[in-house]
Design goal:
The protein contains 5 helices and 14 strands. It is α+β, with helices and mostly antiparallel strands and 395 residues long. It has a 6-stranded antiparallel β-barrel. It has a 4-stranded antiparallel sheet with strand order 2-9-7-4, with no helix packed on it. The chain has a 4-stranded antiparallel sheet with strand order 6-5-3-8, with no helix packed on it. The chain is elongated, with a radius of gyration of 53 Å. The two termini are 87 Å apart.
Length: 395
């Protein structure tokens, strides 16, 4: 019997259906699927936009940035010690106080050193008086030489006259014109003149010897005066060292001196840390980062204490060797076991003066992250969106 067309046949146990009866999906299934696709597409747009901006930043700027977190703020800290022994009499500054060059910091008891200075001044005056006395002796010896020279001239003249007189008297006595007594008197006068000449010559020789002695004493007195003056200057320096002053502008720190403390030469008493304007950064870059690092390259310094307090600087110089070679025990790679380690080279970075003046957090010893722009001294950091805007011509 044929089935009636258009009429559904009910399944029975003897005649099961060969295929399931198709059913239509709920009317809301397709709109929900389309909505999900739209939401996914909308969510994908900012992701693609972010990836594009990041990629553009990497192409324009990011690949030229070399950074390291092995960087520290440093400064030339002056540690002051006592140059003489003494007792701390006064401390003129408070801890962490800003001081200027020449400001008195610590005063030692000056009484003993003042007494030593007075003693040195007295010794100098005595040496000066002794030198003056010897100078007068030199003048006196010179005058004695002049006097002896004049005596020699007079003795020589008298000897010449006595010789002439003796010769004339001898001639007259031989001819019977003069008595023998007068001849003997003339000869005696000649001999006396010769003796006077010898005495005058001996007197000049003695005066010359006295002058040589006086001149030697003058040299000795001059040396003694120089020694006395040097001792006086040393005493003045020691007295000045009773006041310990700041060698430069800075901030007081690490004060170890106490009132009434007995100090000895070389004992550390106080330290002066440099101001922010004289701080710098030492960044230890890997050897693989050094190829394009040159002096003058701009640097962004981000402190660990606050990532939003970044300051700017420039590369000042690169160390002539790796930090390992400057260590106390340099590595010796010629030994049996060898492990290759990436070396680091210290790079000195100067902090921008205006940024340093406006960054009260700057302290020696703090850690920073140094980001060097290797594009050159005239390069400027724009950031993600700045680089995208510059590329698209929106700036």
């Amino acid at each position: 019997m044929n089935a009636i067309p258009g009429k559904p046949v009910s399944p029975t146990a003897d005649a099961p259906l060969s295929r399931p009866i198709p059913t239509e999906p709920p009317p809301t299934a397709k709109p929900q699927s389309r909505r999900k696709r739209r939401l996914f597409a909308l969510a994908l747009i900012p992701v693609l936009l972010g990836v594009g901006i990041a990629g553009n930043w990497w192409r324009v700027e990011g690949r030229y940035i070399q950074s390291t977190d092995n960087a520290y703020i440093q400064g030339d800290i002056a540690t002051l010690a006592a140059r003489i022994d003494g007792t701390v009499m006064a401390i003129d500054v408070a801890d962490n106080a800003a001081v200027q060059a020449g400001t008195p910091l610590i005063r030692l008891d000056p009484r003993d050193w003042q007494a030593r200075l007075d003693q040195a001044r007295a010794s100098t005056a005595e040496a000066a008086a002794a030198q003056l006395t010897v100078a007068r002796q030199v003048e006196q010896a010179s005058a004695a030489i002049d006097q002896a020279s004049s005596g020699i001239a007079a003795a020589e003249a008298e000897l010449a006259r006595a010789r002439s007189e003796a010769a004339r008297s001898g001639t007259l006595a031989g001819g019977g014109w003069a008595s023998r007594q007068s001849n003997e008197t003339a000869i005696a006068a000649q001999q006396k003149a010769e003796a006077n000449l010898a005495a005058a010559q001996a007197s000049r020789a003695g005066a010359s010897a006295a002058l040589a002695v006086a001149e030697a004493q003058s040299t000795q007195a001059s040396a003694r005066r120089q020694v006395a003056e040097a001792a006086m200057r040393l005493a003045e320096n020691n007295l000045a060292d009773t006041v310990i002053r700041a060698p430069s502008d800075g901030v007081v720190g690490n004060r170890a001196a106490q009132l009434g403390q007995q100090v000895s030469p070389g004992q550390l008493l106080i330290a002066i840390a440099p101001p922010a304007s004289r701080l710098f950064v030492t960044a230890n870059f890997k050897e693989t980062q050094l190829r394009h690092l040159v002096p003058g390259a701009p640097v962004r310094l981000v402190p660990d204490i606050d990532s939003g307090a970044a300051v700017h600087g420039t590369v000042a110089s690169l160390a002539p060797a790796t930090g390992a070679l400057f260590s106390l025990l340099p590595p010796e790679n010629a030994t049996g076991n060898f492990t290759k380690v990436v070396q680091r080279v210290p790079v000195r970075i100067a902090i921008d003066a205006q940024d340093a003046a406006n960054a009260p957090w700057l302290r020696a010893g703090l850690s920073v992250t140094a980001e060097v722009d290797t594009r050159g001294p005239g390069a400027h950091r724009l950031g993600l969106f700045g680089s995208a805007a510059a590329t698209l011509g929106l700036e």
